[in-house]
């Protein structure tokens, strides 16, 4: 079995005939970090809940480690870890008591000290959950998701509330888990996080996947840009015509498919004409630009970029999906009880 996660024609409908997930297909090979991104209401949380086995799909097939995660939960649940958007743990328990409580519902759980040390909570064992900062609570959520040494790890917004140092520590931990063979499916609103961590990613919009591939493939599908400010009295019309420059109050932007060649042309023109280019900035397209284009309905042809990924065609006729609740207050009891084996 080469794929840890498989989705084929996956759909999820809610009451009122609202379809939040509209026939998506993708695979995640073992030992890969896969980021599922999307605008608010795009359907990514609804998709992840299907893969976690928290709900049955309205149509299509979901497989995790070769099993249906909803109908074969007994085979899947012991082998996965789930980090929800919000933990919802008893606030009066200490950190150590919370971990021990969860470990009691988990087969072959890591030692408490190991789980807390891996997530930067060593030394906070005796602190009550209600006294933790938002970032520390996210660390605790991650520690509990890792207790059972999962083969597949679902991370829903794992670094929300963390400072820059904590975020990068979490990235290093996720990379180490991947290098050790754990498959990670990640959702995040931090596009830098997806660009830094993900081996591959998919961007959802209105219930469908509209773009997928490696971060490099996704950004390569967008033009690079060159920006600078011209001196007063020097119009952008004097630039070489092939550069297709746009000017706004002296600030010039050039979109290009050939960054090196066009940047050389700009610098050569400036040198030959004794023109100083202030605030010069040249860079390849970013994941953020691709994401914002999709959010604004400028995604263009939504063909997949990854050759091993089969995706349904994208559409734009559906309203945005309602956000699905990810509070563990509604689901962590179910997860805990089904972890008892």
TrEMBL record:
Chain segments carrying region Disordered: 298-341
Biological source species: Streptomyces zaomyceticus
ABC transporter domain sequence ranges: 5-231
Localization per Swiss-Prot or TrEMBL: Cell membrane
InterPro entries: AAA+_ATPase, ABC_transporter-like_ATP-bd, ABC_transporter-like_CS, ABC_transporter_ATP-binding, P-loop_NTPase
Extent of Low complexity compositional bias: 310-341
Pfam families referenced in this protein's UniProt entry, alphabetically: ABC_tran
GO MF, one annotated term: ATP binding
UniProt topology in membrane: Peripheral membrane protein
SMART domains associated with the record: AAA
This protein's name: ABC transporter ATP-binding protein
Record keywords, A-Z: Antibiotic resistance, ATP-binding, Nucleotide-binding, Transport
SUPFAM superfamilies per the UniProt record, alphabetical: P-loop containing nucleoside triphosphate hydrolases (SSF52540)
Keyword NAD included in the entry's annotation: no
Main location: membrane
């Amino acid at each position: 079995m080469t794929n840890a996660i498989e989705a084929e024609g996956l759909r999820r409908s809610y009451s009122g005939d609202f379809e939040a997930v509209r026939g998506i297909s993708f695979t995640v090979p073992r030992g890969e970090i896969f980021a599922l991104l999307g605008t608010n209401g795009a359907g990514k949380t609804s998709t992840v809940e299907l893969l976690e086995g928290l709900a049955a799909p309205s149509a299509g097939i979901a497989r995790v480690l070769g099993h249906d995660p909803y109908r074969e939960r007994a085979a899947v649940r012991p082998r996965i870890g789930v980090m929800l958007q919000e933990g919802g743990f008893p606030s009066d328990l200490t950190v150590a008591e919370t971990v021990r409580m969860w470990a009691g519902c988990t087969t072959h759980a890591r030692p408490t000290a190991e789980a807390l040390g891996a997530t930067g909570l060593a030394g906070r064992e005796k602190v009550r959950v209600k006294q933790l900062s938002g970032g520390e609570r996210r660390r605790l959520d991650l520690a509990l998701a890792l207790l059972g040494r999962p083969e597949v790890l679902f991370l829903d917004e794992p670094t929300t509330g963390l400072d820059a140092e904590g975020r990068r520590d979490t990235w290093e931990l996720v990379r180490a888990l991947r290098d050790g063979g754990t498959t990670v499916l990640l959702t995040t609103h931090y596009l830098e996080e997806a660009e830094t961590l993900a081996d591959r990613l998919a961007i959802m919009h209105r219930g469908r996947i509209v773009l997928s591939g490696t971060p490099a493939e996704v950004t390569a599908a967008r033009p690079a840009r060159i920006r600078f400010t011209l001196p007063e009295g020097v119009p952008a019309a004097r630039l070489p015509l092939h550069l297709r420059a746009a000017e706004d109050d002296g600030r010039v932007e050039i979109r290009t498919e050939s960054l090196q060649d066009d940047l050389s042309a700009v610098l050569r023109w400036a040198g030959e004409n004794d023109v100083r280019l202030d605030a010069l900035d040249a860079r390849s397209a970013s994941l953020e630009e691709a994401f914002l284009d999709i959010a604004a309905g400028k995604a263009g042809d939504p063909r997949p970029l990854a050759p091993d990924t089969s995706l349904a065609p994208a559409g734009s006729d559906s309203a945005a999906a309602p956000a699905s609740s990810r509070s563990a207050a509604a689901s962590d009891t179910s997860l805990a009880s089904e972890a008892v084996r």
